[in-house]
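Render this sequence as a predicted structure.
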Amino acid sequence: MTRIIVSACLAGVNCTYRGDNNLSFDLLRLIDRFILIPVCPEQLGGLATPRNPAEIKLSSDWISRKIVTDQYGNDLTSQFNKGAEEVLKISRFLRANLAILKSRSPSCGCRGVYDGSFSGIMVDGMGITAELLMKNGIEVYSEDEISFLL
C-alpha cells in the first residue's frame, strides 16, 4: 500500500497552535486504501501545544531566506527547520513519496502562506516542511486537493 505523510491535525490530532485539530473527513476516506502517517512538524521541532500563532516572512538581508516568527516577534525558525528535517527523516524511513499537508500553515502550507504581518494576508509560497519535502522529491498536496485520491 502507498504510504502518505499527513499533517496530524488533519487526522484529528489536537496539535494546532490553538490546541485543537483540523479534522478532514475526506482524508479519513483514504484510510482503507493508503497507509496514512500523521506528523506535526511544529511538535517534532520542539514547540508546545498550544503555542502562539506563527507566520513566515522573508529576511531583508542580501540573502533571501525564510524566517518564522510568532506574533510577538520571537524567532522560531530553528524549531520549524528542525521539525521539517524530522518529517523528511520519517518520510524517507517509511518510504513515503506523497504528503497531504494543511494549507496556509507556516510548516505545511503548499499553495500559499500568510505574509508574516499577522493581518490575514495570503501570499504565494510554501511552508518550511512542504518546501523541504518537495525539494527532496516528495509530492505535496493540500487538504483541498485530496479528491484526486478518492
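Summary. The chain has a mean pLDDT of 95. The first helix runs from residue 25 to 28.
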